[in-house]
């Protein structure tokens, strides 16, 4: 007898979760969340999850209540005797805290991994982690998906001549190199220097972009300061056009204004995080729902998911 698969969503990711459920072919499960006057909240499943494979869908962007809600849902599913609990986290928050890069600081990504496991998650499914090694912070299986399966087809559909892939920093060079191989494109790298977080002090371009159509690649856009500065530098070096492709649209602070005022033709992101401002004409959203729904089916049916890994 086939084990039942049940899908539930945190409140912050209901839009994406509904798309995933539609592609999966199941309705979202019934979940009630009670808010208390002091700010606490309590999720409760309004249907039995006993013996089922439960998919709990929720990106853990700020505020931290989004993470806490997912943790409480994991705990509730565990205590309700769910057989398998998969935390589907399109955007994995705190991923930038993946190492101790200064004295007396935490490794936040490791802490979140431990909390998810302690709460009852038996598997994690996520996309484009800020650092691949975060998978090693877990003692449970991690399905690390890549948005390249979404973006590469879109980039090809643009039919750009003299295509060049650019990394906005040295850390993204591997990602840019992988894309350039699949797209048969040249690669350039921006080298940035920071004195404080979220503020680029200086930037240099390594490579030639004159007359090229350039696509900047990144795993996330936070304040958009790096992308805006990189796009200005690339255009100043004689590029024909510049676009940005990034998986997670964190978009904090003045990010929307920076994107709108930048020389970028468009900024392509996924819906792993819902946009707070839909009026910026340059932002194009591609859905990651079909990718997650397909992989969830494969996991539930105990099939290999290697076909979903382009890079």
TrEMBL record:
Superkingdom of origin organism: Bacteria
Keyword Nucleotide-binding: yes
Keyword vocabulary terms for this entry: ATP-binding, Kinase, Magnesium, Metal-binding, Nucleotide biosynthesis, Nucleotide-binding, Transferase
MF annotations from Gene Ontology: ribose phosphate diphosphokinase activity
A Pfam family matched in the record: Pribosyltran_N
Domain Ribose-phosphate pyrophosphokinase N-terminal, chain residue ranges per copy: 7-120
Enzyme class, UniProt record, top EC level: transferase
EC number from the UniProt entry: 2.7.6.1
Protein name: ribose-phosphate diphosphokinase
Origin species: Moheibacter stercoris
